[in-house]
Amino acid sequence: MIDYFLHHLVILPILLPIATAALLLFYDERRRKLKLWISLSSIGLLVLVSIGLIGRAIDVSPHAEVYNLGNWQAPFGMVLVLDRLSAAMVFLASILAVASLVFSAAHWHKAGPHFHSLMQFMIAGVNGAFLTGDLFNLFVFFEVMLTASYGLALHGSGLARVRAGMHYVVINLIASSFFLIGAALIYGVCGTLNMADLALKLQTLKSADRIIFESGAAILGIAFLVKAGMWPLNFWLTPTYSSAAAPVGATFAILSKVGIYVVLRLTLLVFGTNGGTLTGFGNDILFYGGLATLIFGFIGVLASQALGRLASYSVLVSSGTLLAAIGTGNASLTAGALFYIVSSTLSLAAFFLLVELVERSQDTAANVLAVTMEVYGEDEEDEEDEVGTYIPATLAILGACFGITAILIIGMPPFSGFVAKFMMITGVFNPDGLNGDGYQPSARDWTFVALLIFSGFAALIAMTRTGIRTFWASIEGKVPRVQVIEFAPVAGLLGLCLLLTIAAGPVAGYMGKAAEELHHPQNYIDSVLPQQTVAVRPIPSKEITAGLIDKVDVERGGK
């Protein structure tokens, strides 16, 4: 009985937020408090469900938990697939949703209509993209996620927000068209969109159809890489993320990871060890595109003067690091990359929330003047040093949070950002572990490690410069008013990063097992398709017609 109940947990991360979003539509905006409590209760329950899914994924590992919607067996029916990676990503999305909703309770959920419904629909789409086992449903959940994110990107109005939001809508609609075209080409030659079935069909694909399949996969990849933010497809990301409302920007930190997740899943499932002649298809594009994104990201980080743009370019640095790591095809590096996904997403979400709180104390004109004086080498007049200057408690708390966030984004010890980068560097130089025979790193390996380290150095320069301007300045300016309900989610996300550091061993072990499952996709395939399909010779239409005629003649003769 308990096992039966646990089996049905897989559908709840999709069903629960959709039901909640539909329920909230029945209440008008005068019932905002009630809508807030309903939304928070739903997301809180979702966190508990996601924890249960992690336990379920550990129990069934190295296989996957398969949920057949409508009790139709794959590949003909729609399936949800739960493994270690998808369970961890659902948990991560749920945590970000809780933090964003709590932060929005102070102000932002009143800034526009249907905020909570849009948030719930977006989380449903994100969770569905993590759990689905076929490309058709992936497109459906992508559209649910994107449609809700369109409304959230425009939430709160404002000229900059509307302009960036409209660009975001148009670019993602084009990406959705690429998704449909690519999926149609793949279905035309394979006759299936089930991911596990595609991995099997690819082994017997005719050479004449392989070109069409590669074209469909490439077009499909463009749609995913737009969402992942790979250069040069990422020019929409910085304006959209930096101009979005603070809780929206924090939730958007997971959206680029959806594109990363799909690229990682399909690359290792379809073009992994069972891919035959297409094994490693697209890896070079992912690697060098990831390095280009990494370079573009840390140049943007160095050039950013506004906190919002600094946070947005940090998202691109994260995406570039992950895409390059996927492109190496290194299982040990993948484990570090999965750890990095969790750490970077939590720290970036905290940064987006912190940006608004910090900017309340800043004078935009003063910032422009400071930058101008730096450029022309002008210094302020010397003033008498004040001994024992009092620092307001609010600025002290915000400064401490900013410092911790900076350490996490830079990747300095002792926090989880350093652990993640150390795992990736170790995976590059020692892919076979402690029992390896002495791997000789290639030029690609050295390039990846060098850019990974330099991106942290660029973040160190940018965050130090921003911290000095913001907190190491005269206190004659305005002290921001920060409510406890706004500070709590920032502290909670940073606390999770601290917990991630303390529990680095178990979490790294979990991610190592997840990476091993990804690089050995046969268990995934066997879980989704337990009965291997027997290859049957296609019967020509002439033989079918002749057989039917013979059958009719026999029946007539019998009468």
What keywords describe this structure?
mainly alpha; 2 strands; 559 residues; single chain; globular; 23 helices; cell membrane; two-stranded antiparallel ribbon
Textual characterization of the structure:
With 559 residues, the chain is mostly helical. It has a domain at 282-363 and 391-520. Helix content is 72%, strand content 1%. The chain has a two-stranded antiparallel sheet. Helix 15 (331-359) packs antiparallel against helix 17 and helix 15 crosses helix 21. The longest helix has 32 residues, at 159-190. It is globular and about 70 Å long. Belongs to the CPA3 antiporters (TC 2.A.63) subunit D family.
Measured distance between first and last alpha carbons: 55 Å
Number of strands: 2
How large is the radius of gyration? 26 Å
Question: Whole-number average pLDDT?
Answer: 81
Q: Can you list the strand order of the major beta sheet?
A: 1-2
Percentage beta strand: under 5%
pLDDT < 50 runs, ≥5 residues:
364-389, 533-559
Structural class: mainly alpha
Helix content percent band:
over 70%
Write the element-wise H/E pattern from the N-terminal end onward.
HHHEEHHHHHHHHHHHHHHHHHHHH
Shape summary: globular
The biggest beta sheet, please? Answer: 2 strands, antiparallel
Task: Count every helix, treating DSSP H or I runs of 4 or more residues as helices.
Answer: 23
